[in-house]
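Interim report, section 4.2 (structural modelling).
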Amino acid sequence: MVGDVPVNFEMITAAAHRLKEHARRTPLLSSPFLDRIAGRRVFVKAECLQHTGSFKFRGAWSAITALPDTARGVIAFSSGNHAQGVAYAASLKGLPAVIIMPRDAPAIKIANTRALGAEVVLYDRVLEDRDALGAALARERGLELIQPFDHPQVIAGQGSVGLEIAEQARAEGIKDAQVLVCCGGGGLTSGIALALEQTAPQMQVRTVEPEGFDDVAQSLATGQVVENPTRSGLCDAIVTPRPGALTWPVMQRLCGQGLVVSDTEALRAMALAYDRLKLVLEPGGAVALAAAVFRRDEIEGDAVIVTASGGNVDRPVFMDALAEEAADAKR
Amino acid sequence: MVGDVPVNFEMITAAAHRLKEHARRTPLLSSPFLDRIAGRRVFVKAECLQHTGSFKFRGAWSAITALPDTARGVIAFSSGNHAQGVAYAASLKGLPAVIIMPRDAPAIKIANTRALGAEVVLYDRVLEDRDALGAALARERGLELIQPFDHPQVIAGQGSVGLEIAEQARAEGIKDAQVLVCCGGGGLTSGIALALEQTAPQMQVRTVEPEGFDDVAQSLATGQVVENPTRSGLCDAIVTPRPGALTWPVMQRLCGQGLVVSDTEALRAMALAYDRLKLVLEPGGAVALAAAVFRRDEIEGDAVIVTASGGNVDRPVFMDALAEEAADAKR
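Predicted structure of the assembly:
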């Protein structure tokens, strides 16, 4: 930590070093069909191919490998991608992981998290206080809490995506591009922004959120933190009430105007990724591609880079996406 | 050409050199869930992420870049992955491409091939002689025919997949493994087998075909070329009547016993690739993964490598696959 900056570039390169040989270096994909629809070259950073199906493994591994040797295990609150990332990273590291989930979480998510080696502790959303339960468990068992985004080493780990984007863009001959990032609490966004600030300062990060959950876009527009009402949505992976305490100052300093897409546009982007990239994306992992395709007038430059941040989507939702009309059918 | 060997290792390394910077080096993916179901480590070479959604781009680019400078264009007979591979490779190389397709080919395949820059010539399966039509066009316009598998430079190009498998397996610490290859005419299989013979001789290639189209498995078992009745099937990309004239001697010399899976098993493997790898596979591109999962007793070793050779699948077929019960649901 340098002064009041809780995450810096050196922490990102150190996290990337710890991730080497453990995280996948995901490919940067493209398709002439996407270029035509978007009106510029489109490059897709396929983090859905990361271990456990989302970028979250990076932050989890980064945080777990930065723990002191005295750590006896980790604990996290999540029923989604963060849970799977923490569970798998801890099991690879040989550390116990406790994941706290609401009792009404989908059975498949509970089963997957257990299968990745974690102990799942269920709580009742109405009758129990999640934070108190977690704090008691952490104290009893000496577990370290891994926050999903407001954790310096988690942000540093997600920043490794930015280092790879800079290198892969250079290899593709991309000099200048906006980088669209699927944005929930801002861990991935702020990590990538800090990495690109040093390695590709001509690139600008733009956040992409679903309609109704555009707390970051509104915060960026007004210059102060704006909250969404807390509720669930199709893009469940990135439905968060407000930008994080650590991530917001970074986003405010480094990001351009926030982009917003509809749920239907996210579904249509999923269908495009299916048709043109052979990738499975979840709705929250498809919003950046949706913005590249459906908000082309709000983007600048000859090329755009989008993060495809995750692919953990229930089959019925994916089938809904495939039932959408092909986005290029009318061209 | 050395003696009567129409493809050799040097041609494969030369093709790989021409492909560098043009083809994607596709990732070798894995999932602890697949390992558990298969009873050994499973590594998936994701050629569905190749340009145009299948490995066919490699052979097409290899063949087109080996043409004499006097070539005025190329011609191919295909309504599938080979058509798209040839069309895109020719357009990148700035050469005209004519693709001959039956008039009743799916509209989306015709549209995709045209969108990739090729001229599509349609013929009537009943009234017209495809080969005569192609020969006349080739003569008139000075076009070179690119066969889908019985072409030395096409086989050499597909062999680049084998070079990458050898390198990526080494990086993963895999010393010994059977390599399961989705097999139609045998271009990919024989290319990979020739590449591995030199770079990873401890690895053995096994062909995988759909039930009812197991001409290669039967030919390998009997030692002489066996034919299937010509008809269509779910695994359309690899439904061929007999092994190729150039590919058969290579397969006979280098491949182990052929594996055969059912259409339902191919669909269930597609669902597994969706759940666990976030990849879109077509039925013919999923048979090798199906064999790893559903024929575990017919495979040897602690690790198995499977090719996921393509992902061009119509949405209704993919939705059928997602409607299959999860292969690990009973575990």
